[in-house]
Amino acid sequence: MRLQKYMADCGVASRRACEQMIQDGRVTVNGIPAVIGATVTETDEVLLDGKRLKPQDRRVVLMLYKPRGVVSTSSDEAGRRTVQEFVKDLPYRLYNVGRLDLNSEGLLLLTNDGELANRLMHPRYGVQKTYRVVCDGTLSAGEIATLTNGVELEDGMTAPAKVSDIRRASTGGTAFSITIHEGRNRQIRRMLEAIGHRTLRLKREAYGPLKLGTLRPGEWRYLTEEELRALSQVRK
Q1: Is the pLDDT of residue 235 over 70?
Q2: Which of 28, 59, 198, 227 fits a 20 to 30 Å CA distance from 116?
């Protein structure tokens, strides 16, 4: 088995991230610094930063409602709360599928299946993500059309999006739902900035076939077998 796949099966990270760890000299196999392309078996001693890796018997995928003010990383130099705090008592090494920025909230997947995470995040599969957004001001028909058809950002034109359920927010501004299938950094916030609006609230309500449902901020649950089957269809 390729070393990077072995590491992913151990719940370390995606294969691509594991390759970077190998290149950074953080991995040894039987006491020898590892190289990209190496193969291993379960009898080999694979160490990451001096700690032995072992394949995990159970694949774990769970859904967390990430609250605002929490970072989507395993640790934070500034001492801010991380998503790992909510699952720290579980006996698995979990990492998140993609990210939600500090001031965004909602559905975030965590798993110990590096291959699953890599496929769900890969642009090739175009997994749809739906957000409920509140922005300042009133969106004009032309601005809604721009969001729908594509917005020119510094890293290129965004792909077409679906905008629906547009209404006046109770606190002022405009509330609406938007579905995208790209994963650019702070994409929706930047799209709104490009047309002259500031994002006041951003909540992810769906990821592919999965819905946030009744989860409250900070709560999490394991995916059901039906949801896992639905995810497997997304990957094909």
Answers
A1: no
A2: 28
